[in-house]
Design goal:
- With 192 residues, the protein is α/β, with parallel strands linked by helices.
- The chain has a single domain, classed as Rossmann fold (3-Layer(aba) Sandwich), CATH 3.40.50.
- The protein contains 6 helices and 9 strands, in the order αββααβαβββαβββα.
- The strands form 2 sheets. It has a 6-stranded mixed β-sheet with strand order 5-4-3-6-7-8.
- The longest helix is centred in the first third of the chain and has 15 residues.
- The chain is globular, with a radius of gyration of 16 Å.
- 38% of the residues are buried.
Length: 192
Amino acid sequence: MRKDEVEILFEKIGVMKKGHFRLSSGLHSDTYLQCAILQQFPELNENICNILAEQVREFRPTLIVGAAVGGIISCYELAKQLKARCIFAERVDGVLTFRRTFKANPEDRIVIIEDVVTTGKTTKELITLLEKTDNSPLALCTIVDRSEGKHGFSYPLFSALEVTAHVWESDKCPLCEAGMEFYQPGSRKLHS
């Protein structure tokens, strides 16, 4: 599946939405991407994760790491395709933590997966969590990269789709100034 086909698919099934949104990062945007919509369709999710698997296969990962809630299904699917193990981190008192006896081993070759990267905050938290156990990823991947290269990662980032969307600080949002109601569909606040 080519990237232009991914964008058409995402618009068709409702992954990509237009309006006024408050993102998990606190930023406001005119575009929201809800990858959970994709994950309702296992075959489509498999196809999208196959794009990522082909991009990171050269790293020979043994462990795929994601974050709850958005990264769990993609983490599993990517690990299945790469014949790797997968674990996910969950928020405990607002901090990403490995629970359920999940851990990265010193010999693991790690790839982190996200559903959407805008500022890279969750991915950076996962990197920090891994570094606390003397591990680090070889590569990062995301279903959608909407960071426009501003994420600041020192690791390679691969995506199934890159999206350019307007993003504003909440106090500089023209949609707020116009009185447009915003929606906050993200999941970060669910566990903080």
